[in-house]
Design brief:
With 328 residues, the chain is α/β, with parallel strands linked by helices. 41% of the residues lie in helices and 21% in strands. Strands 3, 4, 5, 6, 9, 10, 11 and 12 form an 8-stranded mixed sheet that branches. A two-stranded antiparallel sheet has the order 1-2. The chain starts with 6 loop residues before the first helix and ends with a strand.
Length: 328
């Protein structure tokens, strides 16, 4: 198309398919009045649109007769094209209709790397086996620009104004100090929260102030800690902690996953952080997105996974993990 065309030129080049649809109705029913009945409009409207189509094509398509209408040679050619387009429209409808209700296609989910790596990844194979038609993409949130380019779903720790209409509460993460058995074996166990300040601490920089996730008491203790290691990646932090690198605040569900490798430092020092499943507006009506959303809700089911309940459930209640308590 010539880039120098003006807006009126472009409008003239946009074909009005409705005119051809009206012509198709006239040609196949044999009269203007019958076509008007089929289309649910008035006969003068049908006549006007036929004249409009003939003017655009520069050829007479319809010949009026006593018993209805007939087609000119140009009309026969136009009818052939109209039939082809009608078949194409029917094929389009049969192939596309209901596709948004089907559990097939691409879905993008944004979630922190900690939850995706340590909790969701272990449940993904079953989901993929049951839903082979869904192409799921999991990406980390961009904390600099919110949730980035419109994901279908996002697991978020920050409540927003439209939560009531586009979000489902999944539960809470309960953070406590964790360390590995190998770390305790090498450096000994702290006897209190104050004593623990002299041990090596690891920090996840996503826990920073701008997210406003930590309570005042945790913030005060945090200000006294001299961190020996920092990272903005949850999996790096947890793996460093799990392999003896130091003490780190971690979600209690890790106690259920690694009871033989980790210990919990219970010094009456924890933080509870709520989280939600957020939908892109209107995406809840799309079959494939709803399928993924339902799976996520099931994966974080609080009845079977007590560590995600809003009320705190101590790791000793669901795990055999060693618990080190403050010595009075």
């Amino acid at each position: 198309m010539d880039s120098q065309q003006t807006a009126p030129d472009l409008r003239r080049n946009v074909f009005d398919w409705e005119d051809l649809q009206i012509f198709f109705a006239v040609a196949t029913t044999g009269s203007m009045s019958a076509a008007a009945n089929v289309l649910g409009c008035q006969q003068p409207t049908v006549s006007k649109r036929i004249r409009q189509l003939e003017s655009r094509l520069g050829a007479q398509l319809i010949v009026r007769r006593a018993d209805g209408v007939g087609l000119t040679a140009a009309g026969e050619v136009a009818l052939d094209y109209a039939r082809t387009m009608q078949r194409s429209a029917q094929q389009l409808e049969s192939q596309v209709a209901g596709s948004d209700r089907a559990a097939t296609g691409e879905v993008t989910l944004q979630v922190s790397d900690g939850l995706s790596t340590y909790w969701m990844a272990r449940h993904l194979p079953r989901f993929m086996r049951i839903n082979p038609g869904i192409e799921l993409t999991i990406a980390k949130p961009d904390h600099g620009t919110g949730f980035g380019p419109a994901p279908d779903l996002a697991i978020t720790f920050v409540p927003e104004k439209d939560m009531d209409t586009h979000a489902v509460g999944l539960g809470s993460l309960h953070f406590m100090p964790f360390a590995s058995r190998s770390f305790i074996s090498t450096y000994g166990a702290p006897k209190s929260a104050h004593d623990a300040l002299n041990f090596r601490f690891l920090q996840l920089q996503q826990y920073n102030r701008d997210l406003e996730l930590w309570g005042d008491r945790v913030e005060v203790v945090d200000s006294y800690i001299n961190y020996d290691f920092r990272t903005d990646t949850s999996s790096v932090l947890f793996e460093t902690m799990r392999h003896g690198g130091g003490i780190a605040m971690a979600p209690t569900y890790l106690a259920a996953l690694y009871p033989d490798e980790l210990v919990v430092l219970d010094f009456d020092f924890r933080q509870d952080v709520r989280f939600w499943l957020k939908y892109l507006p209107e995406s809840q009506r799309v079959g494939r997105v709803k399928c993924v959303g339902d799976w996520i809700v099931e994966t974080f089911d609080r009845k079977n996974n007590p560590w995600f309940r809003d009320e705190f459930c101590h790791p000793s209640e669901f795990s055999d993990i060693e618990v080190i308590r403050s010595q009075k």
